[in-house]
């Protein structure tokens, strides 16, 4: 039986309501950490949602198929939901945090109606540069902590250091209680809860 809160990487287990930041140096490292997160959730009969730019979504599909995943069945059943990042985060080219938060709740509620009691959601932030300013994004990430605290959801935000700005990485570290960095999982000493996190980033 699969532990429903096993991350799938490094023996780490999460708690429902966790908001985790994963920081990578390249796509290979990203796949090593994040594909097991999704694969473990699928084996645990959870809804798994991957949000990212096209390259990221292709990587996930290729990796899961290579590991023996039946992608057509998983996606047709809506247990696995893969969404292009701009469709999830933007409407008419604009980022509206409240809309994105409603979509998270809709995905959870819809999954529960289909028999998936809990949900893993992960977003690849590689799409961000030039589309959302850092202060707006940091404010959104802080809201996620409160929005999912009492939900059967685990959210992992992925940051590739070669594809986002240094200020975005700083914002990520300020807004996630737990961080995966390299091959280790850490309680994040840079986390600043809502009300304490400065929004002026240089």
Textual characterization of the structure:
With 202 residues, the chain is α/β, with parallel strands linked by helices. The protein has one domain (19-187): 3-Layer(aba) Sandwich (Rossmann fold), CATH 3.40.50.300. It contains seven helices and nine strands; from the N terminus they run E-H-E-H-H-E-H-E-E-H-E-H-E-H-E-E. The strands form two sheets. A seven-stranded mixed β-sheet has the order 3-2-6-7-1-8-9, sandwiched between helices. Strands 4-5 form a two-stranded antiparallel sheet. Helix 1 crosses helix 2 (54-66) and helix 6 (134-148) runs parallel beside helix 7 (166-175). It is globular. The protein starts with 18 loop residues before the first strand and ends in a 15-residue tail after the last strand. The mean pLDDT is 93.
Radius of gyration: 16 Å
Spatial strand sequence of the major β-sheet: 3-2-6-7-1-8-9
Give the biggest sheet: 7 strands, mixed
Q: Stretches where pLDDT falls below 50 for ≥5 residues?
A: none
DSSP E strands, number: 9
The SS-based structural class is alpha/beta
Shape: globular
- Whole-number tally of structural domains: 1
Integer average pLDDT: 93
Question: What is the CATH topology assignment?
Answer: Rossmann fold
- Written as H for each helix and E for each strand, in order along the chain, the element string is EHEHHEHEEHEHEHEE
The CATH architecture comes to 3-Layer(aba) Sandwich
Name of the CATH homologous superfamily: P-loop containing nucleotide triphosphate hydrolases
| Percent of residues in beta strands | 15-25%
- Roughly what percent helix? 40-55%
Number of helices: 7
Separation of termini? 47 Å
The CATH class label is Alpha Beta
